[in-house]
Amino acid sequence: QVQLVESGGGSVQAGGSLRLSCTFLSHTTRRACVAWFRQSGGKEREGVATIDTGTDQTYYADSVQGRFAIARESAQNTIHLQMNYLKLEDTANYFCAAYTVPSHVGALPYFCGLTENVYSYWGQGTQVTVSS
Predict the structure, then answer these.
(1) What is the C-alpha to C-alpha distance for residues 32 and 121, in angstroms, rounded to an integer?
(2) CA distance 31 to 103
(3) Structure-derived torsion over alpha carbons of residues 92, 89, 83, 77, reported in degrees to the nearest 10
(4) Contacts of 23 (CB under 8 A, 6+ apart)
(5) Is the Cα dihedral 4, 26, 31, 58 positive or negative?
(6) Beta carbons within 10 angstroms of residue 20's beta carbon
(7) Local structure of 82: helix, strand or coil
(8) Which one of 15, 41, 48, 76 is CB 3.0 to 4.6 Å from 36, fit for a cystine?
(9) pLDDT 10s digit of each residue in the chain, 132 long?
(10) Phi (first) and psi of residue 103, to 5 degrees
(11) DSSP state of 88
């Protein structure tokens, strides 16, 4: 069982920055896809960014490309999401999610996408509010 805990949410003015963290409470060395999703109001949950912990390959939604950066801090078993140039529309509850890359993939390249139903493990979320 993998437990994920998000932190770092808060309130910021438009144009500002925040850094979110997703910590794996149960230490694991298994290769995994880790993603950040967000949900606001009555909207559907939206994928934001992913990282493959085996290769550090990243992928971003168009809405955050060039503004957000996802990175792995292996020593702390933590994934960060650096959010810069925040906009009002970035206001949402941000969730960390993960799933284990299938073992048959080995060391081969693997694409971690933003389809939420493949992610097995989810954190409780952290709120980000961007104001004008």
Answers:
(1) 11
(2) 8
(3) 20
(4) 4, 5, 7, 76, 77, 78
(5) positive
(6) 24
(7) strand
(8) 48
(9) 788 999 999 999 999 999 999 998 876 678 999 999 999 988 999 999 999 999 999 999 999 999 999 999 877 789 999 999 999 999 999 999 999 999 999 989 999 999 999 999 999 999 999 999
(10) -65, -30
(11) G
Q: Given the structure tokens 């970035």, which residue do they identify?
A: 90
In the numeric block, which tokens belong to residue 8?
């770092």
* Tokens standing for residue 38: 């967000």
**Going along 1-132, which residue ranges are E strands?**
4-7, 10-13, 18-24, 32-39, 46-52, 58-60, 68-73, 78-83, 92-100, 121-122, 126-131
Tokens of 89: 């529309």
